[in-house]
Amino acid sequence: MKIVNIKEIESRVVDMAGTYKVKKQIPISSADGTPAYSMRVFTLEPNGYTPYHSHNYEQLNYVIEGYGVLVDKDGHERPLKEGDFALVMPNEYHQYKNISDNTNFVFICVVPKQYE
Questions:
Q1: CA-to-CA distance for 102 and 50, rounded, in angstroms?
Q2: What is the mean predicted confidence (pLDDT) over 34-53?
């Protein structure tokens, strides 16, 4: 069993092409012995965004703070706000954007542990 507070988890800048003002924390990972999934927390600073990308696994998301958009495979911007859940299916193109000029957009992202 593991219990940890998000304030205790190291925050790392995501240094990936197509990413702007994004930080990542991994509160539950394969290092903890999880058999299937890892939990990541992404913080998109004001006007930050992830790359427009796809991958061969599903992604489960929950917005814990702020608001933004999830760009879908057709380029449509679908609004997300605190309390919303999102499911991205395998091989589905997507991108997260913080559309605020002054608040963070923070969400949990659960993925198979080999992709943490």
A1: 18
A2: 97
Q: Can you give the three-state secondary structure of 30-61, one letter per residue?
A: HHHCCCCEEEEEEEEEEEEECCCECCCCCEEE
Q: Give residue for tokens 């949990």.
A: 108
Neighbours of 73 (CB within 10 A): 13
Q: What values do phi and psi take at 104, rounded to 5? A: -75, 155
pLDDT at position 17: 95
- Residue 24 tokens read as 């990542």
Q: Where are the domains of the chain?
A: 9-115
CATH architecture type of domain 9-115: Sandwich (2.60)
Give me the residue label for tokens 């790392």. Answer: 12
Q: Residue 57 has which token pair? A: 């696994």
Q: For 49-70, write each residue's pLDDT tens digit.
A: 999 999 999 999 999 999 999 9
Average pLDDT over residues 15-31: 96
